[in-house]
Each structure stands twice: as C-alpha cells, then as structure tokens.
Amino acid sequence: MSSPGSGRPEGHDTGSLVDERQVRALPVTARGQRTRESLVAAARRVFERDGFINSRLTDIATEAHTSIGTFYTYFDSKDEVFTAVLQVAQDDMLHPGLPRVEEAPENIAGVLEASNRAYFEAYRRNAQLMVLLEQVATINPDFRRLRVERSRLFTDRVARWIGSMQEAGLADRSLDPLMTSRALASMVSRLAYYSFALGEDWDVDSMVDTATRLWFNALGMTLPASSPESA
Amino acid sequence: MSSPGSGRPEGHDTGSLVDERQVRALPVTARGQRTRESLVAAARRVFERDGFINSRLTDIATEAHTSIGTFYTYFDSKDEVFTAVLQVAQDDMLHPGLPRVEEAPENIAGVLEASNRAYFEAYRRNAQLMVLLEQVATINPDFRRLRVERSRLFTDRVARWIGSMQEAGLADRSLDPLMTSRALASMVSRLAYYSFALGEDWDVDSMVDTATRLWFNALGMTLPASSPESA
Amino acid sequence: MSSPGSGRPEGHDTGSLVDERQVRALPVTARGQRTRESLVAAARRVFERDGFINSRLTDIATEAHTSIGTFYTYFDSKDEVFTAVLQVAQDDMLHPGLPRVEEAPENIAGVLEASNRAYFEAYRRNAQLMVLLEQVATINPDFRRLRVERSRLFTDRVARWIGSMQEAGLADRSLDPLMTSRALASMVSRLAYYSFALGEDWDVDSMVDTATRLWFNALGMTLPASSPESA
Amino acid sequence: MSSPGSGRPEGHDTGSLVDERQVRALPVTARGQRTRESLVAAARRVFERDGFINSRLTDIATEAHTSIGTFYTYFDSKDEVFTAVLQVAQDDMLHPGLPRVEEAPENIAGVLEASNRAYFEAYRRNAQLMVLLEQVATINPDFRRLRVERSRLFTDRVARWIGSMQEAGLADRSLDPLMTSRALASMVSRLAYYSFALGEDWDVDSMVDTATRLWFNALGMTLPASSPESA
DNA sequence: TATGAATGAGGTTTCATTCAT
DNA sequence: TATGAATGAAACCTCATTCAT
C-alpha cells in the first residue's frame, strides 16, 4: 500500500513534469553545455518576468549574453526552450525523495501532513513557473495533453490507494475512489495556485493543516486531537 | 445565515463574473445594438475556436459580417470585446436563481447537491469560455485581479456559512472556516475545469455525488445512507 | 504715398488672409447659419488644441454638438473648414482700421510704432492660429501659395513706400527697396512668431520699440530722442 | 569676444542643429553601418520629396533597398530617422569654419557679408530640409523646443557682441541688445526661408547685400562707400 | 560554434468619407 | 437638415526565423 504522500510530489495534478525524452542531442563540448545552460536559465528568468506570450527570443539571448543566432544553435523554438526550462524545474519539484510509506494507521496523518507540506513548499519555490505552465497549457495542446496525462498518472495512483484503504475498512466505502482522488488532488493544487502563483500568499501552516484535515475528514478517517489554527 | 448553495452559482471561484460597469456607451440606434451584439457573438465563437491569443480582430469582424472599422466603432481592443463576451456569459453562469435556504439539517445535503449540480451544468455550458478566462487571466493582470476578487467574495461568504455551522455544532470546529472554504471551492471548480474545459468529460452525476459527499465528510457532517455510484 | 503702417495690419507677411471667394454657398436658413458658425468655432478650438494634423473631424463635430454627417453638410473637407476658420480670423487681423497716413516726417515714427503695436497685438490674439497656418502651409501647396501671394502684396506696397521715401531723400538710397521691404517685414513677423506662437513671450513694449528703431535705423531715418527700454 | 559672423552658421535661428547624443547605439558591423547610412540617405530623399507627414516608412525602406523590418533594426520611428537626417545635414550647416574675428571696424562689413553669404549658401543647399524642419517643428514639441533652444544660443551670442559694440561706441546705444539680436537674426533666416524654401528664389547677391546693409544701418554703424548692387 | 543583420508575414489601429434613415 | 453606423485603404509595428560571415 502506498500513501498519497509518496506520489504527490511527483506531479500532484500540476503536470509540471516533462517528458524525459530529450528534445535534441545535448551539446558535446563543455563550452556548448555552458552556453545551453545559460540560455535555459536566462529563458526561465525572462519567462517568469514577462510571461511566455510576451517574452521575446532576443531578450532571452541577450539575458544569456549570447546572440539570437546562438539561441538557434541549441533550440528550434520558444516551445523547445520552455520544455527545457520545465525539465530543470522538474528536478526541484521531485527533489524531496518522500517516504514511500506502508504506514501504521496512526502515522498516516503525519505522513500526509509532511507530504502536503513538501508539496506546498516546492510549489512555492516554482510558483512563477506554474503560472507559466498554466498559460502555456491554455495555448499549446501538446503541453495541455502532457499535463492531463501527468495528472492522470497521479490520480490513478491515489485512487488505488484510496481503494485499498476502503478495502481495509479505513475509508468511507461510499466514495468513488477515482473521482475522490481527482477532487482531493484538485483541491490541493488549486489552493497552492491561488496562494503562491496568484499571490494570495496565505499562511502555509494553515494551508497544510486544513488540507490534511480535509483529506482525513473527506475520506472518513479520523485525526488525533489537535490544536486548531488559522491564517 | 446564507447557505453555500445560495452563493455558489454567483461565482464559485470562477471569476467569470465581470464588472458591471459598461465599458463604453452602448449604441443608440437599434441597428447599432444589433451590430454590437453580432460582434460579441462572433467574438465568442472566434475566441472559443482559436483561443484568445490566436484570434484575430479581422476574423471577428468577418465572422460578424462587418468590417474591421465597425469593430472599432464598438470596442477599443480585444480585451474589451472579451469583457463584453464575459458579461453575456455571466448571465448564464448566474441564471439559476437557487434556493436561499435556511435549511433544516436533513435538507442541507439536498440543497448542496442541487447547488453543485447547477454549478457543474453551468460550467459545462460555458466550459470553453472558462478555458479562455484561464488563458486571459495568465496574460492580463486586470483579469487576474478580477478573478481573485470574485473568488474572495465567494469564499468569504462560504466561510461565514461554515462558521455558523460550526457554532451550531453541525460542523467540525477544528477547521479554519476561511481556509476550508477556499479548499472546498477550489476542489469543485478545478474538478469542473478538468472535466469540461480540458475535455476529460467525466460523468456529471458522479462528480456531483462525490463533490457533495466530500463537502459533507470534510466538514464533519453526515449524509443519510445512499447508494454508491461511480463514473 | 502710403505708409507701411497702413498696410501691415492687412497682412504683413503672414499670409493669414484668405481668399474672399466663398468655398461654397452659405446656408440659407438661420438654423443652418447657426450650425455652420458653431462648426467653424469648434474647428478653431480643436485645431488650436490638437493642431491641424492631429485633429479629427469627429472631434470637431462633437465639439460643435452636431454629428459628423452634419459636418459634411457644410464642408467638403478639413481643408475647407480650415479656410473658413482663417476667414473669420482675418477679420480680427484686419480689424484695426489703421490710419492711411500721408504723414509729416516727424510723425512717421509714431505711425510706425502704432502700426507695429497693432500688428503685434493682433498676432498675439491669433498666435495659435498662426502656428496652424505655418503648419498647414508646410503641408498644403495651396495654402503655401496663398501665403506667398499675400506676402508679396504686402511687401510690394512697402517697397513702393520705401522707394518714395528714397526719392524724397528721407531714406538710404543705396538700399534695394523690394529686398529691404522683404527683410523688414520678415523681421517683424518672425519676431511675433517666436514670441507669441512659440511661446517665448517677450515684452511687447520692448518688441515694439526695437522693431520701430530698427526700421528707422535700417532705412537711414532718424528717430527723435527717446528713453531706451528693454525686456 | 566673438563676432556674429563667427556664430551664425552654427545656428542662426534655424534650429537645424540636432542634439549630439546618439539616438541609439550605432551598428557594429561595417555592413550594418552601410545599411544605416543608406536608410538615412533614403529617408532624406523621401522626406524632401513627400514631406515628413506624407512620407511612409515603407517608402523609405524601399528607397534604401531594404525591408521594413530592417528599418526598425536601426530606428524606432519616423522621428528618429528624421533626427538622424538632421544630424547629417548639421555637418553641412556648420561646415564653413568661419573667421573668428576680433576685427578692425573697417573690416567688420566684410566679415558680416562673408558670414551672411555663407549662411545663405548653406541654407540654399539644405532648403528642402529647412521646410521639413519647419513642418516637424509645428507638429512635434520636441523639435520645437530644440529649435527654440538653438535659436536662443545664437541670439544670446549675437546680443553679447552687440553689447560690446555699444560699449565701444560703435553701435546705437539706445537699442536693446537682446531684442535687437532676435530681430536681426529673424530677418536673415526668414529671408532665406522665403527665397530658398518657399521657392521665391531671389538673387543671392542682393540678399547678401541688403542683409548686410540693414544690419549695419540698424545697429547705427556706417558702411564704407560701396558698389551698387543688383536685384 | 557564434554572430547579428535582414526579412516580411501578420497583426493592430486610425479616420476621412459615404449613405441609409 | 441632421444623424451616426459602416467602411476599408493605408499606415504602423513586431518578432520568430534565416543565413552569410
């Protein structure tokens, strides 16, 4: 049995994860690698500053202290650098190698909370990128598809976990595991979007606490007595 | 005390509601009004077909069987027609004059369910527009702000309702009403977005049922015995 | 023999005077005349505010509280209203029905001074219009021609006056009367342009005094002793 | 002490001189410099042919055998090329490194005459440009300001010279030096404008002679016996 | 690999003028 | 006479992409 916590950081509805396949061969020389890296870093800065739509390739080249010609040595298009930017960020979104738990019931609360916290923190670090991804997904069907697929992978896994909790008599059996999984994942990711991406900037402890309680209540579990807190 | 049901259809996190202020004086003649209306309708079709970004004003004018000059007689920019399009859609999103309940506890489930259903149905009818709004909100700070404000209005109202339920001993008192309100609203709107806007096209009955159960469970209420259902 | 004073107010190099021929028949009804007048007045205000180039016919119509359709009832084009505006201003530029003198030598200084003062004052009242005329003359050959012709009429007259002064032994005979006339007229009109039209806003008394002395000195006349003054 | 002759060609009321600051970085490659130069030359031809207002950027690009995109590589706007055109012309207007005189009184006439002649000749060569400048100054406040400032620099210098001539007892002490300076500068520049820019095309010798005599007479100096002049 | 000049399709915007009412 | 909606030619401007060096 896997906890939801184990999976969430790998995607959690965000679709921020990118296809592993390299868009093109990486440069061979060390110099080339450096140039490519500085282009990706510059692209991220420019995207976050101006948005994907309003960004210009020349700005990216300038920001990377290279020429536009050099840009085309490494990337074929804006979409391609954007993919590269996401690939880098992906490492951070995944980074917290979270506990794959087979947890005793009384520990689940703690694991869920840790997982939610890790997710919110990662989201916070990459909030501007998430806005970008949101933007690009509304424009480009490829990115939209990517995101839906990632989301499905995650919710399927959570659904299986919910199913097994139900079987074990630990969760409300009247719930549809898949739809419930989608709903709860939506809840957390959207909360993060409003707080970090749209700048609502709510108290993270309160977000973590509320999210964790709601998962528990919603699934028909019970949380040990705790101190209420608010934003 | 207002129930969530009474408020949700008026906004529910969508931010689809537009400022009431007219963007500019409406045309005086009947002919002018007809032209303006056909431009708004054409704009909606073009936006939904091509997206806001990829749409061209000339296409809108052509679709409305007018000249581009006529477009500028009524609107100053793409943003302005888009606002007009939202204003029209808003009527539909608000339309279901839902029961303002002071409900007996045993009826709350029914009211919540009706409210959720109405919301999902309205969302379905305007799904493409919601994608558009999502897109525009990532590009234009004004629309982003509009949306955040609308969302706040709605979640504040729900928070007050949750608070009063807690006081009446009908809801889990350990929950932060405001954060809980945000989380639950996020859940429903995001579910609708994935299903209708991103084309996941899930079973609406299942969505309504799951959403309603989760609100109940999450808030620590109890639902009368019911038949399980799935997607 | 005519004094320069007598002619200057009729034009003095400005070319502000417009062809007397009506551009089209004036409206017959009293109502029509009123509408036309308010259009001309509105046009002047708009031209002075926005310049000829940057003005829009719709603004003129709006300013006159009529419609653009009505504008075309009275005028065929922007040029045509502009002509009408000049015709009205012309009355003011001419207005000071100055003394046609056959002056005793000792009075010429006074007449010249009065004439210069009248010219500067009229120019001041119509300064914004003079900027406009300058602008239009650089764009439209018709207005340019008009202005050159007017200028010639004036300088010819002054040249004849200079010639007769030379014959009478009252002016430097080594001067070419025509070129001198052009030079002196240029001097006064340009001085006015800088002060009033370009906003240098010099002291008018000083301008009058200097202009009068320079005409006198330049023509080889002598002025009775006077108190020096400055800006 | 500088003579008016020494300064006039540097400005003389024309305001044709442009700010030295480069409008933007010049192109780095030789090819780029060539392209920029041909654009400036083409712009001048088009401006002189069609006027500033009626000129089109596409015409300038075509005339320079480049694309409109290339135009925007070097200039941001019509105003900016116009500035560049003026900068080039400025070299010609300034070019005659005129005698900086500390002249014996009997030589002043000759210096003044040479100065006037140089000014008229330069004006003649750039006459069409002066029309343009006149036009642009009536439209664009920046150019208007530039021109007023240039004019002030020049007239201030002349005023100081007049003042020192008065102190030396060589000029009419009843004249206000500054206003006199403005008047005389106006006279010469306007004469040139009518003759060369508006196409009156008067005899240059006569213009030079008249201008020189009038300066002399006006300032209360005396000219040695002279040869009769022509029309 | 790196450079940056050159390109031009494609969009937006303006406004004098027409014309049906 | 008065109205104001409709028109569309004509200009402006952007920027991803190509390519010679």
TrEMBL record, chains A, B, C, D:
DNA-binding region at which residues?
56-75
Query: Which superkingdom is the protein from?
Result: Bacteria
Residues of the HTH tetR-type domain: 33-93
Q: Which GO terms describe its molecular function?
A: DNA-binding transcription factor activity; transcription cis-regulatory region binding
Instruction: Decide whether keyword Nuclease is in the record.
Output: no
Q: Which InterPro entries does the entry link to? A: Homeodomain-like_sf, HTH-type_TetR-like_transc_reg, HTH_TetR, Tet_transcr_reg_TetR-rel_C_sf
Q: Where is the composition biased (Basic and acidic residues)?
A: 9-22
Q: Where is this region: Disordered?
A: 1-22
Q: Name one Pfam family in it.
A: TetR_N
The UniProt keyword set, sorted, is:
DNA-binding, Transcription, Transcription regulation
Does the keyword Translocase belong to this entry?
Answer: no
The record's section on PANTHER family has: HTH-TYPE TRANSCRIPTIONAL REGULATOR BETI, HTH-TYPE TRANSCRIPTIONAL REGULATOR RUTR
For this entry, the protein name equals Putative transcriptional regulator, TetR family protein
